[in-house]
Amino acid sequence: MAQVLxxxxxxxxxxxxxxxxTERGHAVRSAPTAMAGLEQAVGDRPDVVxxxxxxxxxxxxxxxxxxxxxxxxxxxxxxxxxxxSEVVAVLDAGADDYVTKPFGVAQLDARIRAVLRxxxxxxxxQAVTVxxxxxxPRSRQATLDDDTLDLTPxxxxxxxxxxxxxxxVVSKRELLTEVWQLPYGGADKTVDVxxxxxxxxxxxxxxxxxxxxxxxGVGVRLAAPEG
Length: 227
Hints:
Elements: E1 3-7, H1 11-23, E2 27-31, H2 34-44, E3 48-52, H3 60-68, E4 75-79, H4 84-92, E5 97-100, H5 105-119, H6 121-124, E6 128-130, E7 133-136, E8 141-144, E9 147-148, H7 153-164, E10 169-171, H8 172-178, H9 188-202, E11 212-215, E12 219-222
Parallel strand pairs: 1-2, 1-3, 3-4, 4-5
Antiparallel strand pairs: 6-7, 7-8, 8-9, 10-12, 11-12
C-alpha cells in the first residue's frame, strides 16, 4: 500500500481516482489546487504524487519545480496535453512519469507501483534491522539475535518486504502482487501458509507473536518486540 496524494481540480476526476486507488489498497489524500498540494506534499510526506497540470492557481509544471526544491517524492503527471514538447518539459522539471488523459485507474496503479519500485532499488539493496532481526538483501541472509535463519527464497523475500515496511500494516493483496507477482483473488491462503512457516522459524506463533502481528481483515504488520 502506498500513501498517494492526488492534486486535481476536477472534482469528478478527483473522486474517481480516490475511489479507484483506494480499492486497490492505497491510502489516498487529495488537494484541488497547487498550493494546497504543495502544503500536503511537504507536510504529509506521501510516497507518490499524482499531479494534474491544469490547476486553477498555478500551472502544474510550476508546482512541480517548486516541489522539487524541497522534496524528491516521485511524481506522476496526469495531463490532457499530449504534445511532445509539453511531455519533455514536465520530465525536465522533475516528473518521474506521466499519463495522458483519459486513462484508467488500473494503468495509473501500475505506474505508481513502477515508480515506487524504481525509487526503491537503492533502498532495497540496504540491510534492514528490526529489533533482533537483520535482513541483508545483497547476501540474501537473515539473522535473528545473531543466529542465521534457514529461509527458503520466498520466505526471505516475504520477510524482507515486511521488514522494509516495519510498523506498517501490509495487505495480502500487496504481498501477492509485490512478493509473488500474482494477481489478487483466492490465493491469500498462499500468504497465510508462508506466514505460518515464517513464524515458526522466528520462534513465535500467531497466538503469541513477537515480530509478525496479524491485523484481522487487513493484513500483517512486522514490528520489533516491545520491552
